[in-house]
Amino acid sequence: MRVCISDDTAARSVGADAVAHAFADLADVEVVRTGSRGLLWLEPLVEVETPEGRIAYGPVRPSDVEDLLRAGALHGGAHALRIGDIAAHPWFAAQDRLTFARVGIVDPRSLDDFVAHGGFDGLRRALTLAPSAIVEEVVASGLRGRGGAGFPAGIKWRTVAATESDRRYVVCNADEGDSGTFADRMLIEGDPFTLIEGMVIAGLAVGAEHGIVYLRSEYPAAIERLEAAIATAHLNGWLGDDIAGSGHAFDLEVRVGAGAYVCGEETAMLESIEGRRGMVRAKPPIPAMRGLYGRPTVVNNVLTLASVPAILRDGGSAYAARGVERSRGTQVFQLGGNIARGGVLELPFGVTVRQLVEDFGGGTRSGRPIGAVQVGGPLGSYLGPDELDVATDYEALLAAGGMLGHGGIVVFDDTVDLLAQARFAMEFCAIESCGKCTPCRIGSTRGVETIDRIIAGEREDANRELLDDLLVTMTDGSLCALGGLTPLPVRSALRLAATGR
Amino acid sequence: MTYEPWDEGVATAMLEPFTSDATLVLVALQALQARFGFVPEAAVPLVAHTCNVSRADVHGVLSFYHELRTQPPATREVRVCRAEACQAVGARDIERAFADAGHPVGSRTSALAVDAVYCLGNCALGPTVEIDGAVHGRCDTDIVREALR
Ligand SMILES: Cc1cc2nc3c(=O)[nH]c(=O)nc-3n(C[C@H](O)[C@H](O)[C@H](O)COP(=O)(O)O)c2cc1C
Ligand code: SF4
Ligand code: FES
C-alpha cells in the first residue's frame, strides 16, 4: 500500500513530517515523499493509492491519523477530511500543467519515476535537432523570461549562440528573492530533473558545456534535492562528457547565495558567482554577449528553463497556442498572503487577477473584504479591490501601472495599513540596495524618513511633494530595477491609502 | 546546529582546494561558516592568502552578504519573516511578541538570536518563522514560546 505525502518545505512547515512518520509506522504501508500538488491550504495532504487511483485527505494533523485509519482511509474510505481525487479537484482540474506537470506526482529523488512520467522526452528530441533548430523552437514558443523582466528567451539564446567565444555558460537564476514567490523552490524540491533537462537543452542550443545554478541559501531543502539530482543525472549519463551517448558534454554546478536580494539581478549574480560583492554591472555589455567570466552567458530563471523541455517535446507552436497577445504559454502563479486557498497554480496567461484571488484563492483567509493585492513581488504595484480585473499579461499589467514579475500575488484584507506598506517597500530598498547609485542608496533612506513624516502628519503637502520628486529621481536615475521600480509599490500604496480605497 | 570550534589548522587545510582562485572567495567564506558557524577575523588573512586577493577584498565580500557573520552563532537561531505575504497575516504581531519577550528582531545573546528574513518561500502558509533551520508555517504568537524552549 503506497501513501504519498509531500515533503515540500511548505508542507513540512505545517507538520507533514510528523504525519508521514505516523503512516510509516503502519504495517504494509510504504510512504513516498513527493513534492506538493500546490494546494497548499490542504497541506499536509495525504494521498492513498487505491485501485481507483489516488485518494486525498487534507489537511491532516498527526492526531487525525488514527481516526482516518478507523474510517478506512487506506482504502479511500469516507471521512470529513476526504478530498478525493486531486486531479478532479476544481482548483487542479482547471489548470494547464506543463512546467509543473510532474510536481507532486513523482518521487523527486527517483530518476526512473521522472523518466516514467515523460522526463527527458524534450531532451531526446533536442538531441536530434541542430542547435539553431532548438533555438528557433524556443523562439517560436514565445517563451519569455519568468524572472521578472519578460525578455524573450529564444532571442537571448540566439544572441549567446551567435557571439564568438571559446566557451559559453548557462546560468540558472534560482535566487527567488521576491517575497510572495515560491514556485522555483517548489519545482526544484518537487521535480529537480526537469530543471536539469531544461539546462542541458539550453547548453545544446547555445553551445555551452557548463551550467551553474545560483540558488538562495534560504532554500536548504532545494539545495540538497538539486545536488542529489545532479549526482544521479551524472551517474546515469544525463550530465557529463557524453550526454545519453550523443557525444555532447554538459556539466552542472550549484552555487549558493548568501542572503542578498540584489544578487537576483543577473549581473550582480554573475559578480557573486565570480566571488565578489554582488554589485550590479552597467549594461551594455549584456550578459548574453559578455556574462560570466566575460563569456556569452544565458541567464534564465528556473521557470523559464523548466518550461523548455515541454516546448521541445511538443514543439514551440503548441506552447504558443496558449496565452494571450504577446504573453504566450502558461504562467505559474503563486497565491500568498491573506488568502483562503493559497498555493501554486499553472494557467495560460490572460486569467485576471480577480479570478486568481477570488475564484481560485477564495478571497481572504481572515474572511474580511480584500483591501489590496500586491502583484509581482516587492517591486510590484498594489492594486485596490476595484482594480483586480486586469489580465495577467505582461503588457496589460504594465499599462495598469503594475508588473507581473515572477508571478507572485499577495493578498491583504481591509485592515491593511497601506502607509506602512509604502514605508516597508522603501525600507526594503534601503536594506537591499547594492549601493552603486545614489538615488537608490541615499534616496531610499531619505524616502523612509519622508514617509515617516507624512505618516506623522508633519508638513504633509511639502513632504508629499518631496517624496514625489524623490520617486522620479529613483525611477530615472537607478541602474537596476531595485531602485528603479521601488517607486511602483510606494506610489500605488500611497495612492490607495489616500483614496481610502 | 552544531559547529566545530574555530581551528586555524583545520581551516587552512580545508581551504587548500581554493588555492589561487579569486572567484572562490565567497565559496571559501561560506565553507568556513558552514564548518565553524561564523567567519572569525583570523580567517580573513587566511582566505586572502589562499585565494590570492587582498584582505580588503575579503572584507568587502564578508560585509556585503547579510548571511555571513563574524560573530559565533547563538545556541538557537531564529529568523522571523518580515516580507509582505507574512505581513498580510500578522508577521508584525509575531515581531512584537518577540520584542515583548525581551528578544526583539535584531537582538542577540549567546543563547538566542532573533533576526529578520525577507521571505522563506512559504508565503501561502504564513506567518513564517524559522527556528534552527526548520521552517514553521501558519505561526501565531505561541511560536515565541517554542523558540524560547
Ligand atoms: C533587484 C532584482 C532582483 C531580481 N531577482 C531575481 C530573482 O530572484 N530571480 C530571477 O529569476 N530573476 C530576478 N531578477 C531578474 C534578473 O535580473 C534577470 O532578468 C533574469 O534572471 C533573467 O532570466 P529570465 O529572462 O528567464 O527571466 C531580478 C532583477 C532585479 C533588478
Ligand atoms: S538601483 Fe540600487 S540596487 Fe540597483 S544598481 Fe543602483 S544602487 Fe544597486
Ligand atoms: S513572505 Fe514570508 S515566507 Fe514569503
Description:
Chain A is of the alpha/beta class and 501 residues long. Chain A has four domains: 2-89, 3-Layer(aba) Sandwich (Glutaredoxin); 111-320, Rossmann fold, CATH 3.40.50; 323-413, Roll (Ubiquitin-like (UB roll)), CATH 3.10.20.600; 418-499, de novo design (two linked rop proteins) (Up-down Bundle). Chain A contains 21 helices and 16 strands. In chain A, the strands form four sheets. Chain A has a five-stranded mixed beta sheet with strand order 2-1-3-4-5, with helices on one face. In chain A, strand 10 and strand 11 form a beta hairpin. In chain A, helix 9 crosses helix 10, helix 17 packs antiparallel against helix 18 (438-456) and helix 17 (418-432) packs antiparallel against helix 21. Chain A is globular and about 70 Å long. Chain A starts with a strand and ends with a helix. Chain B has two domains: 8-64, no CATH class; 76-148, Glutaredoxin, CATH 3.40.30. Helices cover 40% and strands 12% of the residues of chain B. Chain B is built from seven helices and four strands. The mean pLDDT of chain B is 96. Chain B has 149 residues and is α+β, with helices and mostly antiparallel strands. In chain B, helix 2 runs antiparallel to helix 3 (43-51). At the A-B interface, helix 1, strand 12, strand 16 and helix 17 of A face helix 2, helix 4, helix 5 and strand 4 of B. The structure holds flavin mononucleotide, iron/sulfur cluster and FE2/S2 (inorganic) cluster. FE2/S2 (inorganic) cluster is lined by residues 81, 83-86, 119-123, 126, 128 of chain B. Iron/sulfur cluster binds at residues 262, 280, 433-437, 440-441, 478-480, 482-484 of chain A.
